[in-house]
Amino acid sequence: HLQNVGFIGLGNMGSRMANNLIKAGFKVTVNDLNSHVLDKFSHMGVATKKTPFEVSEASDVVITMLPSSAHVNDVYTGPNGLLHGGKLLRPWLFIDSSTIDPQTSRNISSTISNYILKEKKGDFEKPFVLDAPVSGGVIAAEAGTLTFMVGGSEEAFFSAKPLFFSMGKGAIYCGGPGNGSAAKICNNLALAVSMLGVSEALALGQSLGVAASTLSKIFNCSSARCWSSDTYNPVPGVMEGVPSSRDYNGGFASKLMAKDLNLAAESAKRVGCKHPLTSQAQKIYTELCQEGHEGKDFSCVFRHYYTGMDE
Ligand code: NAD
Description:
- It catalyses: 3-hydroxy-2-methylpropanoate + NAD(+) = 2-methyl-3-oxopropanoate + NADH + H(+).
- By secondary structure, the chain is an alpha/beta fold.
- It folds into 2 domains: 4-175, NAD(P)-binding Rossmann-like Domain (Rossmann fold); 182-304, Orthogonal Bundle (N-(1-d-carboxylethyl)-l-norvaline Dehydrogenase, domain 2).
- 48% of the residues lie in helices and 14% in strands.
- The chain contains 13 helices and 11 strands.
- The chain has a 6-stranded parallel β-sheet, with helices on both faces. The chain has a 3-stranded mixed β-sheet with strand order 9-10-11.
- Strand 2, helix 2 (35-43) and strand 3 form a beta-alpha-beta unit.
- It is elongated, with a radius of gyration of 21 Å.
- Nicotinamide-adenine-dinucleotide binds next to helix 4 and helix 6.
């Protein structure tokens, strides 16, 4: 009962993930607000639908890959949304891979737990929801090497593994509803701060006369080594094949990082957790967006240290 898969949200990530499901032999039905992208899929012979509700009517499983919480709420509970059909649903599983706040994931999960299946599917009588955001970005989405962080029923997680492994190389079960979303925003918070730490240290080093390439070599065999220094170095010319070597084009947009930091800050406030570095990082990435770099890769935060200085 994984054969008919609905896919909603065919943007940078979703279009590539849907393509990998098609390649793996799933019968995929798609929807997006953007008619151009729908036409593309239609020309490839893929079934397209005008609304999320029509996708749900055609699918056993529905995957969503949308920009933010508001879009996810709209696709689930809006007019002609996935739940438009009343308390009876065809899909036995809903997987949301968008990066959204854990509270929204939990709300959707509790809404759907009040529904029942039109037809009993295997052992299941009620539909399941998994929050399953990804790490890896557009290149990993294309190559089918994403990692899924999954919250919700463990039984549903095991049943959904063939889908995860058609789009990715890993799937980690994180616990109950919302825990996948929580894991994702915590990962991106740590990444945002580590990128800032590496950028600030390399900018200071350069100002003190040590070349960024020399300092990076030292970091990479010392205790400052991290992904931001050895895999995704933010200083142009230190590494090849990373966004900093192509004027920060491609990669993970600053505006998405700012969005994820907003989610982390909101979640921290909700649970009363101290978050001084989240607040500082949120402020810096937001400024970066306001300065017009919202579409550039987030490692362009390195440049922030030179704004207003003679370069
Ligand atoms: P995107 O903006 O390229 O794509 C989103 C798609 O959703 C668009 O095609 C849009 O038309 C569609 N959409 C919006 N509202 C809709 C609605 N109501 N009904 C149907 N379709 C609708 O975004 P993306 O880069 O693919 O990212 C998707 C999610 O994945 C985001 O939450 C993002 O934070 C997360 N993410 C992105 C990356 C990345 O590198 N781009 C990496 C990891 C996670």
